[in-house]
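Weekly modeling sync, notes
Attendees: S.R. (lead), two postdocs, one rotation student

Agenda item 3: backlog of single-chain predictions. S.R. asked that every request posted to the team notebook include the full sequence so nobody has to chase files. The rotation student volunteered to paste the first one in as an example of the format we agreed on. Action items at the bottom.

Example entry:
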Amino acid sequence: MNFQFSEEQQLLSESLSRLLGDRYGFEQRREIAASAEGWSPEVWRQLAELGVLALGIPESYGGLGGAVADRLPVLQALGRALALEPFMASCVLGATAVLATGSNAQKDALLPALASGELRLAWAHEESGERHNPMWVETRAARNGEGWRLDGSKPLVLHANAAGRLVVSARVAGQGDAAEGLALFLVDPKAAGVTLRHFRLIDDTPAAELTLRGATAEPLGDVGDGALQLAAIRAALDAGTAAACAGMVGAMESALELTTGYVNTRKQFGRLIGEYQALRHRVAEMSVSLEVARSMAMAAAVAADRAGTLEASIELMRAKLVIGRQARLLGHAAIQSHGGIGMTEEYAVGHCLRRIHVLDQLFGDVDAQAARLACIGA
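Predicted structure, as returned to the notebook:
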């Protein structure tokens, strides 16, 4: 398998890196994190102008087309900048769900607005009933005349504060962890019966707890086609897993760059600390971890384009497991190489580790992936 970016991907990555370098320096990021929105509408507009938001959306809907792998350099660049923009929530999770199961009318209404940046979606699926079980859904959908109403809660909805519509999974039949009986719905976050309790994750990413009490909902596609609805949920989760893998690689790149710069400029006892053998070995091990993670992130992106097959699911589990382990090792080594400064709020390397931990938890952490692989092996 070729793990190198194509020329087009490399050019897009370089353009995006220049944009983020100008607009998303660490101090600028801190200002964005401290703002009421927690993300930058101006940067979002510039991402749209660069064509980043149109990746993965078919040209017939105003997008640039492309596969999951084509978003890999974008996700790595955003991860490297520790960006707080709602790209994963809207352009990966939300857009994948709409593409997979939305009606023609819904695609016509939503996808061009997503590609232009005028509309943002948020993905509301994970529930707390059974931790890291991707199909545990207790939120209920019930007919109300010709419409639908939802009752339930979702404890973690990324960038709900930025979303014009929420893509919510709910159960139309079955109990608890049954894969059958699931469907996706569009919900207006400002509608009656919808409550959002906003908060920030440890890496400053905006999120919210969603509570639904008889909230009006629009079915996303045909609710009666359970197989298609389930496939859409799995496709979104697979794309999200691949995105989390790529984001962790970006955060790892940033942490390694900061560490290399620090050990090559910090002096102790009259010598650069990077001259000490122990630190040289540590940085070398960090570089190995990053290269392993890069290869696995590409494998995850390729697997996400084959969503729905057992082989693809296994590849995604392996990638998330390996990258999670390597990212933790690298992040902790980066902190240790910096000493006390690495733990301060004012220095970037600690924020890299925070981002790694958040992305590791999304869609199942290292332990969850190992458990899933063990069940398949059994």
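Discussion: group reviewed the output briefly. The chain has three domains: 7-120, 122-228, 230-377.
Action items: rotation student to repeat for the remaining queue; S.R. to check formatting next week.
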